[in-house]
Amino acid sequence: MNTRFFLPIGIFLALVAVSAVSMMSMLNGNQAREQLPSPLIGKDAPELILVPFDTTLSTSERQVDLKQLIGNGPFAVNFFASWCAPCQKEAPFLEKLSNHIPIIGVAYKDKSDHLAIFLERFGDPFNEIGFDNDGKTSINWGVYGIPETFLISNEGKIIARHAGEITNEVLNSLLIPSIKETIR
Description:
Blueprint: H1 3-27, E1 49-52, E2 64-65, E3 75-80, H2 85-97, E4 103-108, H3 112-122, E5 128-132, H4 136-140, E6 148-152, E7 158-163, H5 168-183
């Protein structure tokens, strides 16, 4: 037997196996994306000026601007998309969160007609929605997967971040306690 022939095949099969296990872990939700720290915690929220979902606004009002919200109490910024299955699953928990604070939605690389269907089907907990069609806003915020949610203080500082879908556990153990801490 020629080991020069079997060695490359063995290495290739080992890489395929490791990649398959990693991919299955990610698809099953076993990788904890939320454990990666955000360098933005405690810092001013990055700029957020987006074209709004509401096309009935006049030209002078045609933007969702984060600066207009600062000073009115804490709020959340949620990056999501109509084509994102975890975004659909988190919808009822975003609705619960919206009972505590306003939520700004950032539709990541989405289309108006698809977004309208999503909101009709899963509900609309958002005070405003803006489009991030080119993905630059998501990059500036350090988003590496959707859904991703940031809590912003009254002063415009990021106080918490959750990567992945919001669940009842995330809502009650991270988001609502962070909101209560901010309001004190």
